[in-house]
Amino acid sequence: MAEQCGLCGATDDLADVAIEPREDTVTLCATCRDGVEGEISDAPHWKCLNDAIWSTDAAAQVLAYRLLHRLNSEVWARDLLDIAYLEPDNQEWAEAGIVDGEEDALIHRDTNGAVLSAGDTVVLIKDLNVKGAGFTAKRGTAVRNISLVPDNEGHIEGRVSGQQIVILTEFVKKSG
Fold first, then answer.
1. DSSP state of 114
2. Which of 1, 60, 105, 126 is 20 to 30 A from 159 via CA?
């Protein structure tokens, strides 16, 4: 059987990558190596992590866990992390490789201090004039499937009356 990427199954431009702090390696294609070594963003390629997190190869599973953690702002990645199971020693190995600073990411909180996550539903606690859109978002309006503004913990994004708008977290409360 031809050698293939331990995450996505690609068969070209392969190289072994060590999974710190152990010396175990995973064979990765160029696209997966770029994601491991640099910036990672939500793209169809990373849906391969749906299978990789369940790999029988511990190093591939650990790497998939770390990449999903880096994609944690995406609902599908967060959902997959919620159901993934790693053996305790592999879990410890995976968490040992999570870069410091990822844990220090901005924390978005509603008016009551509850932590908001991408995909949550919030309710507006006051009428908000939506600048540039010409309407008022009414108090009590539910905003489903919110997105977090990555560089500002006081802002979230959501769809109200068919328009994608930025909402200050001080004017919402988490629903449910």
1. P
2. 105
**Class of residue 115 by CB neighbours under 10 A (exposed 0-12, middle 13-18, buried 19+):** exposed
* pLDDT tens digits, one per residue of 15-63: 999 998 888 999 999 999 998 888 887 788 999 999 999 999 999 999 9
Q: How many CB atoms lie within 10 A of CB 153?
A: 15
- The Cα–Cα gap between 159 and 119 comes to 12
- Portions of the chain given CATH number 2.30.30: 122-174
Can you tell me the distance from the alpha carbon of 117 to that of 30, in angstroms, rounded to the nearest whole number?
Answer: 31
Rounded Cα–Cα distance for residues 42 and 75 (Å): 10
Cβ–Cβ < 8 Å for 128, 171 = yes
CATH number for the domain running over 122-174: 2.30.30
**By three-state DSSP, how is residue 159 classified?**
strand
DSSP labels, 20-51: TTS--EEEE-HHHHHHHHS-----GGGGGHHH
pTM above 0.90, yes or no: no
Q: What is the Cα–Cα distance from 81 to 167, expressed in whole angstroms?
A: 27
